[in-house]
Amino acid sequence: MGGIYERLVALCKSTLHKSLGRRLIPDDELRTQLLECASIINSRPLCYQAEGDTPVLTPNDFLGVMPKQLPYPTDNDDDPDWLPENDDSARAALLKRWKDSNSRLEKTWNYWNKAYVTTLQDRVKNTHDNPHLSVKSFPQLNEIVILQEDKTPRQSWRLGRVSEISSNRHVKIALGERNGQRKTVARPINRICPLELRAFSTCLISLLCLVRLTLSCSDLAVLTGQAQDCQISDVIKCRYQQSTLFPVTPSTQTVCAELRAPNNEASTRLVIKLKSVKYKCHRSTLAYTRQVAAHVVKSVKSVRCDQALGSECFSNFCESTKSETKIPAFGDQPNSAPGHTNCFRRCGCAWCGCGLCSEGCLFYRYFLESDVPDIFTVFSCPSFTPTVVGEFTLNNITKKFVLTPALPYHFSNITLTVASLSTAPAPIFNSMFLQNLRSNSTAIIPETVRSSPSNPLSVYPCASASAARDMSCPVRKDICRCSPDSYDPHCSCHVLDLPEILRSDHALPLRRGDLMLSEHDGEVLVTASTPLQLQIQINETLVLQTHLSTCTIEDTNIIGCLDCTEGATMSMKCSTNFGPTTARFECDSTIIKEIECITGERISTSIYSTTSDINEDCKAICVGGETQFSLKGKLAIAQPIIPSDMERAAKDLTPEVVSVWEALKDIWGSYKTIFITVLSVGLFLIAVYLLQLFIPLFMLAGECLRNKQPRPQLTPLPFRRVHGGQRP
């Protein structure tokens, strides 16, 4: 994808060059031109947002820019204002500059539109030798394309959707709706081009962006402990204490801490990665309930006439009817199910089916029953307990941990403590939850359900799970509202489909902003990326095993010269009693460069002396102490150069004939092929030149010879008849 953007940079430069040319314009006009050009380029469509007729995404959308255009003055006015010919007013000058600027911008837009569309079309060509219609990716159905049209308004891109592919050269494009109708136009495929970002490439880039390539520490703290009660002999034993606060954001940052000894050696390395901050709900159960649906709530009527045989309608029995009153006509199931019994007075007399004209009685009962055995609970979370979940690696040992604020976590000599944790108030913490006790399925009760009469706390609330299981909970009287007439009660009951809430979009797991609600073993957990401060305390005791090595110098040898360019060097055998170590030297008048002493190896180093005869005692100083050795030797003295020696040296530098001949032989051996090639080409050119020079002479000589010898003429013999058959 980088090639097209490199080409866009070249198009921008060529567009500015085409619109400005060699013209010199003021600085403010140049800045305006550049800003307008940037707005034009950033208004190009990248990809569409959805399947509908929604605006496409442009670079301006990501830059947060909303380009605006001022109306351009036109010359189509039938009655223009009269202006003097030489109007030098500021208004006229400003209007002229504005027109010139708009003219340049129109040129920029026209050139950019053509060049950019050509770039998009060239992207899909199969090879450079094919004609313009040979495309590698043919337009697909429902693909959003750009229609290439001439004289389009500035920053206006006409888009359409491929609705039909009629042939391999023409397609039908569906444009946007206007007045409820969608217009369709036919265009050749060389007049349309795809958008910059297509569906496949966009998905591929998005997937590549999700790939996590590297893992690194967000904060690296080098903790240099202060030594306390250190004992130094062959063993250095020191005790360190260090406590540091780290601001950390879970799931995005990794904390690295490293404890170094005074010799800059890393003794303890700690890597801490916090995965999340989880808030555990401390539930407060509000009620238990069962599923009751509209078909479960039933109304049973019993119509009785006053003083009728076998009727309960006598005296004031109707007025004294209570919720638990059992009417034998209802049957055992309605009477035993939770509900309410009511009675209304009705008309009497013959037209109401009664022998007496006194008022009759209308008995009815609404009751609840459930065919779903599951028990549901309604609860809220008045408080939450935060916990920090993470893992740390201590010297290549990885262990998971769970931190609670103000409670330290100990592992080996490391102590972790959450110093501070702040949580922004969120409405989701005040939610009411519904949970199925059998499957632990949990959902948030929507606010619309909580505020309606059909909420779980009003339909069939129970004080305990056993009461809900036995269907022995009291029923609210206002669960059903009845308005009976003379023959039948008309009831409207509030019911709620509890399993539907658990299957809705409010079921857990659920994300609200940067909070994630989930259910684990019946508990509600809220996962957040809340910044916190983590305190790390390290109590480390370092034991460093040291060896105080001594070194011995033997078999010294001095070579070189005094006060010369090459200088002097000393070779020696250096041995230690334990491992390699660094040795430095001290002498009276000789300076010796320090070395790394390794047993069994001969080591050379440079020296500097003020005398040619060296005979002195020196000291080799190592970490284990000093050792003495003798340094003896003689340095050569460099002789000054006199004029006679310079002449002799010049004669010595005079090359002999033999050496020159050898040099020529070397040159011939190296460039023999080149010499032969050049010589062959030269001989060929000379031969061609001679042929061109002598061929005309040969042709002229031949012509002369032909002119000196005339062509013989044939003379016919006279014809004579011979008689007798004899020849003449």
Key traits:
728 residues, alpha+beta, SH3 type barrels, Immunoglobulin-like, ten-stranded mixed sheet, five-stranded antiparallel sheet, 23% helix, flat, disordered C terminus, membrane, transmembrane helix, transmembrane
Overview of the molecule:
By secondary structure, the chain is α+β, with helices and mostly antiparallel strands. Among the domains are: 2-72 and 91-201, SH3 type barrels, CATH 2.30.30.140; 547-637, Immunoglobulin-like (Sandwich), CATH 2.60.40.350. 23% of the residues lie in helices and 35% in strands. The protein is built from 12 helices and 36 strands. The strands form 8 sheets. Strands 8, 11, 12, 16, 17, 20, 21, 24, 25 and 26 form a 10-stranded mixed beta sheet that branches. A 5-stranded antiparallel beta sheet has the order 6-5-4-3-7. Helix 2 (27-41) packs parallel to helix 4 (90-123). The longest helix is centred in the last third of the chain and has 52 residues, at 657-708. It is flat. The model is unreliable at 124-135, 218-228, 294-302, 646-658 and 721-728 (pLDDT under 50). Residues 96-195 form the DUF5641 domain. This is (pine wood nematode) hypothetical protein. The chain crosses the membrane at residues 674-701. It comes from Bursaphelenchus xylophilus (Pinewood nematode worm). Residues 217-538 form the Phlebovirus glycoprotein G2 fusion domain.
